[in-house]
Design a protein that fits this description.
Length: about 230
Amino acid sequence: MPLPYPVPDGSQVITRWPPGIRPLNGRGSRGAGGRPELEGRPTDMATTGSGQRARRDARPDPGPRHRRAGEDRRGADDRDETHAERIDRELMELLNELRIALPGVQFLFAFLLVVPFQQATERATDFQRDVYFVTLVAAVAATALLIAPAAQHRALFRQHDKEDLLRRSNRLAFLGLCVLAVAIVAAVVLVVDFLFTLPLALVTGGVVAVLLGWLWIGSPALQRARGARTDP
C-alpha cells in the first residue's frame, strides 16, 4: 500500500497523498502494525500478481450469447478446438494418410515400368498385354490422384481456401484409393496368369478385389451407416 510522502515547501514539510488516496480520519489513523488506514485504493492483495490473477479467474463466463462467432471451441466430436483448428487438423491428418498410401502405388508403378524391358514379355498373350495396359494406366491415375492434395495444398498457399481444399482432397484421395485397388487387382491377374493359368488368375483377382473392396469401402460404409442410425 503506498504511503504518504513528504514534499519540502520552504521551512515546513507538507504531507501529500497520492491521487485517489485519502485518510479515514483527518491525517490518517493507525491500524495494525502502525500502518495508516486509507481508503480509495484496493487492498495490498489486489495490487500484487496473485491478486490480479485471482480477479481474472473470478471473472464470470460471458456465456455463449456474448461470445463472438467462431469462439465456441466445442466441435461435433466434443474436441476443444475452433472451426479453423479443426480444418487444419483434418487436413494434416489427410496428408499424413496419403504418405502411407503413396509408397505402395509408387512401388507398383516402378514394377510396371520395368516389366516391358524383360525378355519374358515376348511370350505374353494379347490378354496379358491388355491387362498390363489397364494396370499401368490405373497406377498412373492413382499416383496423380493421391499426389493431387499435396500439390494443391502447395499451389494454394495463403489463399484462405483450406475448407474447400479439404473437401476436394478428400474426394481425390478416395477416388485415388479406388483406382489403386483396380491397379492392384489387375497386377495380380497379370502375374498369376503369366506364371500359372488364366482361371486361377481370375479367381485370385476376384478374391483380392473382394478383400480390398471390403476393407477400403464396405467396412467403412457399414460403420457410417451404423453411426447414422445411432445418432439422435
